[in-house]
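Here is the promised in-class demo. Please do not try to memorize the tokens; focus on the logic of going from shape to residues.
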């Protein structure tokens, strides 16, 4: 699994059912670039037709690649990327400066309800539950435990002096 989608190891070749004559590797790379580099998923009105136009490939070929290479439909792919972005922002302290409402609109969701529903589907938690859990996990990491032991050891050595 890479990111939030599972890359299928498929050999996409032209058959009667596959769309047009496009070079599917070219379409795959263009879709990856649109998502990973250009962050096309933050546009709230993005759809497969607009994506296809932006990457310069037919809609049918773009949709075919998303379904067969990424193993999900366009809306699932968009929502996975949006939730991945939300998780990254939350883990990096986004809520110290901004609100949840700013977050869902910034990452491309058109309303709070859909954001919460998709976030919970993906993580099993609401965004605030995720933040609280993430903060408690950060407090008790192995590195933090080692740091505490070292600090306690130094303090106890100083008390002996």
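The designed amino acids, position by position:
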């Amino acid at each position: 699994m890479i990111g939030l989608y599972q890359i299928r190891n498929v050999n996409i070749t032209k058959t009667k059912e596959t769309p047009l004559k496009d070079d599917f590797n070219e379409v795959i790379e263009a879709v990856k670039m649109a998502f990973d580099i250009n962050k096309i998923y933050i546009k709230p009105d993005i759809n497969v037709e607009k994506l296809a136009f932006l990457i310069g490939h037919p809609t049918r070929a773009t949709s075919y690649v998303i379904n067969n290479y990424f193993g999900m439909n366009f809306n699932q792919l968009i929502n996975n990327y949006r939730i991945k972005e939300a998780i990254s922002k939350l883990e990096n302290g986004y809520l110290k400066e901004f609100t949840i409402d700013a977050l869902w609109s910034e990452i491309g969701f058109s309303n709070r309800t859909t954001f919460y529903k998709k976030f919970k589907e993906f993580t099993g938690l609401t965004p605030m539950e995720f933040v609280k859990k993430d903060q408690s996990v950060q407090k008790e990491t192995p590195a933090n435990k080692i740091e505490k032991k070292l600090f306690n050891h130094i303090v106890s050595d100083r008390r002996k002096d």
